[in-house]
Amino acid sequence: MTRERPPLTRAPDHLDLDALGATIRIDLSASAPDDRERIARAWSGAARDDDSSPVAVVRPDPSLPFDEAAAALSTRVTLAALAARRGDLWMVHAAAVADDEGRVVLFSGRSGMGKTTLMSHLAREYAYVSDESVGVAADGRVLPYRKPLSIIDRTDRAKRQASPSSLGLRDLPTTASLRLHAIVVLDRDPLCAAPRVEELEITDAISAIAPQCSYLAELAHPLATLTGHVSAVGGALRLRYREASEVVPLVADLLASHRPRSPLPVAAQDRNEPRDPAGYVRTPVVDAVTIGGDRLALLRRGPHDETAIHLVDGIGPALWRAANGASFDELLSAVIAEHGRPPQGDARAAVRTAVTALCDAGLMTAPAPPTPLRAEP
């Protein structure tokens, strides 16, 4: 467990950090002594106190002014830690605090949702876990990343890297391990009159959280992992708020609540190659699961190695499952077998509309039209 280091007695030539459980070394050998001390102080909250071997070494950019170099260094450490734990941890772009019993509230949010500002308020009352990335093991253990916080100076509006202790943020508990207790999606709204917490339906939770996950597609079962962690804490929540200071009282309620685990019926779907590529075929995906028996979640990798989540409902799941080289009539039969004929309207027209939508979304491909016969000369 990382603890704040005591004041420095000399400028170190390197720092070993605990970042998501990985040891990342900052090589300061080419930095000026004053810069070494400033960087060491900024990273004191993540300093390791053991002899773990580093998995990556990063260095400040000597060509940049100090504040810019320190900010870029923070990014390098983050990227190195994420790369080191890829395929191992569920990692979320999130902030987090913990109570004395090690219960962790994770606040997921895209950039601009105020995670750092929120931590500067909440972590005076609770232990600071991270304001950038949180790693969660399969059993719910949380791996902290106590990086410096990027603070905007009120005088010249420049950003500086501030250590948790310099901001009065609390250290990690010493007698309890960190465990995931609540997952909260941040929704900062300047028009919100009063902060409020509301439950998120699982598909809304997936849509909000999946884009904030790092290396999600590298996990063995990414969608089952994500939904499993959500169900383990009783479902995800959405926090609508305006000012970070207004959120502090809500965290006590989140930590005190014991929302029962809500297992979701999640079933893996067949992702085998189509038996006959001449018909309608589903697009290859990284992962596919049904949720609740009637909705389909797909994790797909794009042409530039980016990932995207698709949520399909209605007759879409039946069509996607049947699109294994099937003809249109076979797709129609699969839908009728699963859903029956519609009480009104034409089943063929409804299936045609749904098939077109799946093809437009890139989740299925239609058979190529036949090549016209060339007339003999």
Q: Can you offer a commentary on this structure?
A:
- This protein is α+β, with helices and mostly antiparallel strands.
- The chain has helices at 33-42, 66-84, 115-122, 202-209, 222-232, 248-256, 316-322, 328-339, 347-360, and strands at residues 14-19, 22-27, 56-58, 90-98, 103-108, 127-130, 133-136, 142-143, 149-152, 159-162, 179-188, 196-199, 213-214, 237-241, 266-268, 280-282, 287-291, 295-301, 307-312, 324-326, 364-365.
- The strands form five sheets. Strands 4, 5, 6, 7, 8, 11, 12, 13 and 14 form a nine-stranded mixed beta sheet that branches.
- Helix 8 (328-339) crosses helix 9 (347-360).
- The mean pLDDT is 89.
Specify the biggest β-sheet.
9 strands, mixed
E-strand count: 21
Global outline: elongated
Rg, Å, rounded: 25 Å
**Unreliable residue stretches:** none
Order of helices and strands: EEHEHEEHEEEEEEEHEHEHEEEEEHEHHE
Amino- and carboxy-terminal Cα gap: 82 Å
- Estimate the strand proportion: 25-35%
Question: What is the share of helical residues?
Answer: 25-40%
Number of helices: 9
Average residue pLDDT: 89
Q: What structural class is derived from the secondary structure elements?
A: alpha+beta
Brief descriptors of the model:
9 helices; alpha+beta; single chain; elongated; nine-stranded mixed β-sheet
Quick synopsis:
The protein has 9 helices and 21 strands. By secondary structure, the protein is α+β, with helices and mostly antiparallel strands.
List the helices and strands and how they pair.
Elements: E1 14-19, E2 22-27, H1 33-42, E3 56-58, H2 66-84, E4 90-98, E5 103-108, H3 115-122, E6 127-130, E7 133-136, E8 142-143, E9 149-152, E10 159-162, E11 179-188, E12 196-199, H4 202-209, E13 213-214, H5 222-232, E14 237-241, H6 248-256, E15 266-268, E16 280-282, E17 287-291, E18 295-301, E19 307-312, H7 316-322, E20 324-326, H8 328-339, H9 347-360, E21 364-365
Parallel strand pairs: 2-3, 5-11, 11-14
Antiparallel strand pairs: 1-2, 4-5, 4-6, 4-7, 4-13, 7-8, 9-10, 12-14, 15-17, 16-20, 16-21, 17-18, 18-19
Helix pairs in contact: 8-9
